[in-house]
Amino acid sequence: MSQDHVRASDADREKIVDRLRQAMNEGRLSLPEFDERLQQVYAAKTYGELTPLLSDLPAQRESRPARATGIPQWITIMWTPWVFVNVLCVVIYLATGAGYLWPFWVAVPWGLALLIPTTIGMVTRKKSR
User: What are residue 88's phi and psi, to 5 degrees?
Assistant: First the structure.
């Protein structure tokens, strides 16, 4: 059974508009052609009226989301200040005679505070895949 006579929803029209906008951005449609088709999209009531608007455009390939690899950016953003501050503390520690290991009190509590959200984020990231 054909769906040409089934009424189109606003979401269906928006999908067509997105595809037409993409075609215009690719140079497949001129601005006047895009505008004309846009008017036809919003005037359409059924799928049968929407289908011809994309018939001369190449089929849109479904793109898969890129698989996340490597270290997420949020981890780098969180841990970068920790690394630089602690390197600075160790340099100061060594430059002042390397007595009591006070940089420990900067590195460990702050590191533990960062380790908690990092662990939670990585565990939930693995579960969402």
Answer: -60, -45
